[in-house]
Specification:
Helix content is 40%, strand content 17%. By secondary structure, it is α+β, with helices and mostly antiparallel strands. The protein has a domain at 103-280.
Length: 291
């Protein structure tokens, strides 16, 4: 009898007890954790990029008017004039008149008349005691020579990039010798040039023409800076816009010197000649010319 009572009591307790669940089952029954959608982070980054682009665009938009205004001020300061205007203003100087792109009397191959003019040039260099020597023929230089010391009329010339020897036509050396004392009178001691001979076409106003540059004839030199007796270096690119007195004086000197064609500077060509002075010997190769 008592066994039957114990059995009934055990059945009642088992029915009222909570079921036993394994840990793995507990984990599975938990509600899934709330996660941030995967698109949220990229959206933020995209927003940041968009803001950055907008800021950059605004900054660029602000800079453009400033750059344009600065350029206008620079051009106004330079008082740009055309080569034609300069030619008209300097008609009384008496320089050689060029009918085309090449010097009067220039022909290729070199003619006897041209060599007669070059012989006169060589004699003038000898008279000035310039140490010069014949150089190998290059391009269309009528009388190629080299001056080892690169000193003309007491003024020393140094290349910014190239290495000696510097080949040029005798006529360029001749005019540099004549120009030397005049530059020295302005206080110039040294000249730094970019190039003398190079086989290129004329380039003016950012446009390349069809004619040979006078560099290809050995008659031109690009000057990038001048050094005065005190050691001050005057750079065309940075000091001409400031209207440096020495640069303006040199420009005035060469423009009124019949030995040279009109000087090309940032004033008459602020695009292709913004950083140098283009010196070009003016010569008439016509028969009988002794210039």
């Amino acid at each position: 009898m008592w066994r039957a009572v114990v059995l009934v009591a055990a059945m009642v307790v088992s029915a009222s007890a909570q079921p036993i669940t394994r840990p793995s089952q507990v984990t599975a029954t938990k509600a899934p954790a709330t996660k941030t959608p995967a698109t949220t982070a990229p959206a933020k980054r995209a927003t940041t990029k968009s803001k950055t682009k907008t800021a950059t665009k605004k900054a660029t938009t602000k800079r453009k008017p400033v750059a344009k205004a600065r350029k206008k001020r620079t051009l106004k300061t330079l008082k740009r004039v055309t080569v034609e205007q300069q030619s008209a203003q300097l008609a009384s100087v008496g320089r050689v008149s060029y009918r085309g792109d090449m010097p009067p009397g220039f022909e290729w191959p070199v003619t006897t008349e041209m060599m007669d003019v070059e012989k006169g040039c060589e004699a003038e260099l000898d008279g000035a005691r310039v140490d010069w020597q014949h150089a190998e023929a290059v391009g269309k230089i009528a009388d190629p020579i080299a001056v080892p010391a690169m000193v003309f009329g007491g003024v020393a010339y140094h290349s910014k990039w190239e290495k000696a020897p510097f080949v040029m036509d005798c006529q360029l050396a001749r005019m540099l010798v004549r120009l030397g004392p005049k530059l020295a009178a302005l206080g110039v001691k040294d000249v730094t040039f970019g190039s003398v001979y190079r086989n290129t076409l004329v380039r003016f106003g950012g446009v390349t023409g069809k004619a040979l540059s006078r560099h290809a004839l050995g008659l031109a030199m690009d000057v990038v800076s001048f050094t005065d007796a005190s050691g001050r270096v005057v750079v065309v690119e940075t000091d001409y816009p400031k209207r440096d007195a020495l640069l303006l004086a040199i420009e005035e000197l060469v423009d009124h010197d019949k030995d040279w064609r009109i000087l090309l500077t940032p004033k008459n060509d602020p695009i292709s000649h913004k950083d140098h002075y283009h010196l070009e010997a003016s010569i008439d190769f016509s028969a009988g010319s002794s210039r």
